[in-house]
Design goal:
binds ligand C2E, binds calcium ion, alpha/beta, cyclic-guanylate-specific phosphodiesterase
Length: about 280
């Protein structure tokens, strides 16, 4: 029994060594990815339910890995955040999104608001306001066409400075959206302190709405809350026409999800903007 215990322990340390090794490999590869510019943005449309047309897009980060192919953000964003590399990559995301939106505007398609996701580290470890302002200026983009998305996790440390920064962002004229709404700890108490103009209802509620009436009730409450605060409500993860009908009945303003389009590369999104959604 004693020997087996030691065997388990050896297995355990080997496993830990392997995990630490994999992590270091990943960090090295991510540093290279920054140098080699292997990151790309995919775009997913936001559709105004009432008008039935594309009014915005969310820029979503992908890693074009030379061997592994396209890597999804949940595979590498946590490491970028832990190592602080997210500051560099996040600056690239803001710049690339503003550049792309300026290209679309120059192309003469109806202007859209482009949303970019922000990590908490970008508030703590960089001058995020300056990054945003210089990207807007560099690409001659009117601030109203940029939306910054964040979750309430940005408030876990340094609440006051972060809220001050958000008020400055609002003053500049960029849109602010509270992402994954309804999943955090104290969404309601934070909400009145965030100067946001959009609430994005977390997609877990829609996913569960068909089986549990409770989820539909929560979606309904969030939409009512948005309306009473004068905010635009956005339903994330709309995959079926039944889900679309539900949020439409409840008075939701905008929708995003596979029913309309998965996140797609810029050139495909350009075609989508020019042709409009199939009706
Ligand atoms: P998020 O901000 O909540 O983004 C929405 C996610 O839902 C995206 O996953 C999108 O592909 C997915 N989605 C959209 N519609 C549907 C649907 O109908 N069904 C299903 N099942 N999924 C849908 P993605 O692109 O894998 O991104 C995951 C998360 O990674 C994002 O969640 C966001 O938190 C983070 N992320 C992505 N890009 C960035 C970035 O540039 N910066 C930062 N800080 N985070 C990012
Ligand atoms: Ca988002
Ligand atoms: Ca979300
Ligand atoms: Ca999320």
């Amino acid at each position: 029994a004693k020997d087996r215990g030691r065997g388990n322990f050896q297995f355990f340390t080997q496993e830990l060594n392997r995990q630490a090794h994999d992590r270091l490999m990943l960090i090295t590869q991510l540093r290279q990815a920054i140098e080699r510019q292997e990151f790309v943005l995919y775009y997913q449309p936001l559709v105004d339910i009432h008008e039935g047309r594309i009014v915005g897009a969310e820029a979503l980060l992908r890693w074009q890995h030379p061997e592994r192919g396209l890597v999804a953000p949940d595979q590498f964003i946590p490491i970028l955040e832990e190592t602080g590399l997210m500051v560099t990559v996040g600056e690239w995301v803001i710049d690339a999104a503003c550049r792309q939106n300026a290209i679309w505007q120059a192309d003469g398609v109806p202007p859209i608001s482009l949303a970019v996701n922000l990590s908490a580290v970008q508030f703590y470890r960089s001058d995020i306001l300056k990054t945003v302002q210089s990207a807007l200026q560099r690409h001659q983009l009117d601030p109203q066409w940029l939306t910054l998305e964040f979750t309430e996790a940005v408030l876990f440390e340094e609440t006051e400075p972060v809220i001050r920064t958000m008020h400055r962002m609002k003053q500049i004229g960029v849109g602010l959206a509270l992402d994954d709404f309804g999943t955090g700890y104290s969404s309601l108490s934070y909400l009145q302190r965030f100067p946001v103009n959009r609430l994005k209802i977390d997609r877990s509620f829609l996913r569960d709405a068909e089986e549990h009436d409770g989820s539909a009730d929560i979606i309904n409450s969030i939409i009512r809350l948005s309306q009473s605060l004068g905010l635009i409500s956005v339903a994330e993860g709309v995959e079926t026409s039944t889900q679309l009908a539900l949020v439409e009945t409840l008075g939701c303003n905008e929708v995003q999800g596979y029913l309309f389009s998965k996140p797609i590369p810029a050139d495909e999104f350009t075609r989508l903007l020019k042709s409009g959604l199939p009706s």
